[in-house]
Amino acid sequence: MRISLHNHCDYSEMKISPFFDVSIERVIDNMYQNHIDVCAITNCNSDKGFFEFCRLNNAGRYNLVTMDSYAIRASYKNWEGYILKGIEFHKPEGHVVSFGYKGSMTGIANMDKLENILIDVKKREGRSIGAHPLVKLAGGMGLKRMLDYRHHLDAVEVFNSQAVFPFSVMNKLTEHYSKQYDIRGIAAPDSHDGNVSIAYIETNED
Fold first, then answer.
1. Is there a contact between 158 and 175 (Cβ–Cβ < 8 Å)?
2. Its pTM surpasses 0.85
3. 43 and 11 in contact (C-beta within 8 Å)?
4. What's the sign of the alpha-carbon dihedral 105, 93, 154, 199?
5. For residue 95, which of 27, 184, 188 has the smallest C-alpha distance?
6. Cβ–Cβ under 8 Å, residues 98 and 126
7. What letter does residue 193 receive in the DSSP assignment?
8. In degrees to the nearest 10, what's the CA dihedral of 33, 38, 42, 46?
9. CA-to-CA distance for 132 and 167, rounded, in angstroms?
10. Residue 19 pLDDT grade (very low, low, confident, very high; cuts 50, 70, 90)
C-alpha cells in the first residue's frame, strides 16, 4: 500500500502558481497512474476541499463515493484509491498536517494555539505530523518545539520533497533527531501541483 499524506489542491491558500491544475481529477490521475492507494488532502488552515469533493459523484472518468466523514473512494476499472480529509495548520508556532479527525477544523485552525489544536485533534481521533519541522523559513516549528510537542505528534516529516537544496540538509537533520528522540519519521510530498506520488510511505499492511 502506498500512502501520500501531505498534499494541496485548488482549495488551498498556498498554490505555487495559478497556472497549475490542482483539481481533484488531476490529483486522482496522479494517484491512478502511480498506484497511490491513499492520499490526504491537507490544505492550509482549511478542510473545505474535502467537503467540496464529497458533493461530487464523479471526477472525469473516476467514480467517487463518500465512505464516511473521513474518506472518499475513487475508482476506475480495476483500481480504487482513497482520499482522506485533512488540513495543514499554519500557526506562528509551526506547521502541522492532521487527518482522520471527526468534523471540520477550519474555524479552529484560525482561532487557537497550536498545542491546543493538537490536543483537540487527538480528542477527535485524528493524527498529526510535524511538517518540514526544521525548515523554519517555510514555517517549520524548529527542534525545540518538535521535542516539546512530540507527545502530541504521531510522526514528523524526515523527507519533505519540497525541501530542496540548501534546505535538503534539514531532512537529514530531522531524520537524525527523530531517531535520537524516538519520534516516528515519514516521507511526504507537500505537493502543490497535483504530483502526490513524488514522495510516499509504502507498507505491506492493508
1. yes
2. yes
3. yes
4. positive
5. 188
6. yes
7. S
8. 110
9. 10
10. low
